[in-house]
Amino acid sequence: MADTLTETNDPIARMRAIRRDIHAHPELAFQENRTSDLVAEALTRAGIEVHRGLAETGVVGTLKNGDGPVIGLRADMDALPIEEQSGAAHCSTHHGVMHACGHDGHTAMLIGAAEALAASRNFRGTIHFIFQPAEENFGGGKRMVEEGLFKLFLCDAIFALHNWPGLPAGRIAVQPGPMMASYDSFTFTLKGVGGHAAMPETTKDPVTTAAELVLALQTIVSRKISPHDPAVLTITQMHGGHTFNVIPEEMKVMGTVRCFSGEVRDFIRAEMLRVAEAVCGAHGVSVSLAYEEGYPSTINTPAEADYAQRVASELVGAEHVDTGFRPSMASEDFSLMLQEVPGAYIWLGAGLETKPLHHPEYDFNDDTLETGRDLLILLATNFQNGIQERT
Length: 391
What we know:
Layout: H1 11-24, H2 33-45, E1 49-52, E2 59-65, E3 70-76, H3 103-120, E4 125-132, H4 140-146, H5 149-152, E5 157-165, E6 172-173, E7 177-180, E8 183-191, E9 195-196, H6 206-224, E10 231-239, E11 246-247, E12 250-259, H7 262-281, E13 286-295, E14 298-300, H8 302-316, E15 321-322, H9 334-338, E16 343-351, H10 369-384
Parallel strand pairs: 3-4, 3-5, 5-16, 6-15
Antiparallel strand pairs: 1-2, 2-4, 6-16, 7-14, 8-12, 8-13, 9-11, 10-12
């Protein structure tokens, strides 16, 4: 790796250098080879035992200091297929790929926490530093779990944080229960009878039928689900046809569903097919639905969320910790780890001026690196020293 990552003794400057190096060399899901090498080298240099290969590019570092409880700390490593427009000096050098969600910062913070904990040994028990690939849409967390993450690295609890634009820098948000929504994707395939665009009466037009379907689907959330049960059904793509003067035989309508309740999730899926069959049947067009369940809701367990609140309050003051807020309709595959091990997902304020996540002009706010690192350190040291109140 670059000499600039090892030549400084200032841990904050080192985290900043690591973060910007990763940002300049973003890698998509399951392709995080350079990033994994960087992480493994940093952990090895710190004297931390390194395991590689889970979910292809995943890295787990294990640090032991006698008998005691075991905590997992997780960061994600992958980038997004977006062309960067931030104009930063450390802008992506990979065309069409950028760190638009701050995983570069999450990785740098966890490396910084691991190095500090390895140097201080100010804890009792074991810490697993989990660097996960493929959070964005591809379920790297699920792969790690399926390949034995928590069998190889038993954890009493696990924690992760995510930078959060719109939340002031210096603030932290965490609460029991829902933090993020579930994420499902779907594709409707409509098949009619194609024909000449000048003779629509000879066809069964899947294009106009698809247009009606898009509008009809919106009534599922607005008219059939209680406003007390948050849900989103969004159409994101429509595909069909190849030229101006031909009505195509087939149309595809694609999108995503987000919610928090399993009952609502099941209802929406069933109602989508019922609505589609009714709309398409009225026009003599057949329809099929391919529905893929993605990430479940990210649900913090009560004891661990309360613990994270106390730790955050110790770090930044209780007045700077948000504990009662609306969860996000975005999704996170840390949810799959929380289905296996108690834990909490935490939002770290990224500032009011930071561009939204997944925006081409987004860049991680380096001024939050120290707070994020210190939060991870404190979660580990307090947990290991038995401060956590178990319920």
